[in-house]
Amino acid sequence: MFKQTVASIALVSALIASPTVIAEGGKKAMIAPGLYSFTVEHDGDKVEIMRNQDPKNTINELYSTTFRGMPQPIHPFEPHDVETLGEREFVAYMQQAQTDENILIVDTRTEGWHYRLTIPGSINVPFTVMKEAESAADALDDFGVVKKSDGSYDFSKAKTLAMFCNGYWCGQTPTLIRALLEVNYPAENMKYYRGGMQAWTSLGLTTVGDAATE
Hints:
By secondary structure, this protein is α/β, with parallel strands linked by helices. The protein has helices spanning 2-17, 19-24, 87-97, 111-116, 133-142, 172-182, 196-202, and strands spanning 37-42, 45-50, 83-85, 103-107, 123-124, 146-147, 153-154, 160-164, 190-193.
């Protein structure tokens, strides 16, 4: 009986401490333990990132449908060591990017999608950028890659890219990552936020753009 009572108390304590119950109890929904919000710069403005605190908030209509493509593998680039990120890991890179110019948050979707709705602090580098020599050269330059006189690339100062697209099923970020791997961009400098916009909006996290509701 005593063991059952202790187990029940432990279960209740765990539930009370969980972010879900905290949100349902009228308190703030957390992003990570102890993290309720943080600020990033987006197009010259400061934007506060937090979860929508309205219990009746619903996912943005752009990502409300579920009849989408086949989900991407959790590690689609093996044997290349490209790390797949969840929200908390992605958020950590977003925070680091505010003080470290060697980290970029990259929206790999086409320009129209980026300006319609995106994650604050991101820059837009469409997944098609590596198809043309001129745009590829510009992108690699932005990523810190130096083209040497013999035509080869120096990746010693290549930036860390935390990339995302529309969702688990979207192939745009994988397409860009594979194109960068083909030119020998360091796998360890690329991070894949697999959940992308669908996962981000499903958690009520802040977005910016013409379709933002925040």
